[in-house]
Amino acid sequence: MQRFIDKAVIVTGGGSGIGRATARAFAREGASVLVADIVSDRADETVALISDEGGKALAYQVDVSSSAEVSRMCDAAVEAFGKLDILFSNAAVIDKGAPSAEIDDDLWARVIGVNLSGTFYGIRAALPHLVKTKGNVVVTASVASLGGMQGGTAYTASKFGVAGLVNQFACEAAVDGVRINAVAPGGVDTNIFDGMDDIPAMQRMVRTNTPLGRFATPEEIAEPVLFLASDAARYITGTLLRVDGGVRSK
Ligand SMILES: NC(=O)c1ccc[n+]([C@@H]2O[C@H](COP(=O)([O-])OP(=O)(O)OC[C@H]3O[C@@H](n4cnc5c(N)ncnc54)[C@H](O)[C@@H]3O)[C@@H](O)[C@H]2O)c1
Question: Helix, strand, coil shares of the chain as percentages rounded to 5?
Fold first, then answer.
């Protein structure tokens, strides 16, 4: 399929995991992709992968927790591609599953700053451009947008907030023909867990709690993202689409 020919797309957190898989998927279907990440080497690697596959992409360094940097990122996409059709707001950090008592002020501010404020800054900055193209936004929420876990208070709070932003912006932007949706993954096999204390125990816990019994691949999240961003989803806005192997069905 080539659903995104001549479409201009920004992918934040595009240097790894879900962002990388989604950037590649958009490019394979004809989009020009601004691969934005705080780690420029990772963004460069994604762009090289896309170029090797014959796609069109540019690397861009951004810290999504800075509203000024996020505004410049949107302007850079429009400057490079002439317009903006789709924002995939995906960059986030975890609090390593820390219980509430261990979340100090700096960790709280960092997680909320990247995950919640970063999502707000991205949608706010992209909207004026998306109004012109009748474009849309897809956000990476989480099963943590739907309920608490045993640890990870800051992450869960940030992802509940992200779900609220999707609802709010969807209502506000509909009048301008812009759709805002989210995917809510469960466990996905990416680098986000690097640095956690006991990764094997966490992986066992995720598998045990997931009816489908395994982690998703990043590509299995990319496919629903592309669906939500495509014209096939033209009557869908304000939706949080669970892609969680059934975790929240239990
Ligand atoms: N992996 C999972 O199990 C899982 C589950 C549910 C939701 N998610 C969500 O999926 C999204 C992508 O995560 P992933 O699993 O692919 O993780 P990942 O760590 O593989 O990729 C995240 C990318 O975001 C970048 N990033 C981090 N902070 C940034 C910042 N301030 N500005 C710009 N870029 C920044 C990182 O450098 C990295 O390249 C996140 O929103 C995450 O919360 C992941």
Answer: 50, 15, 35
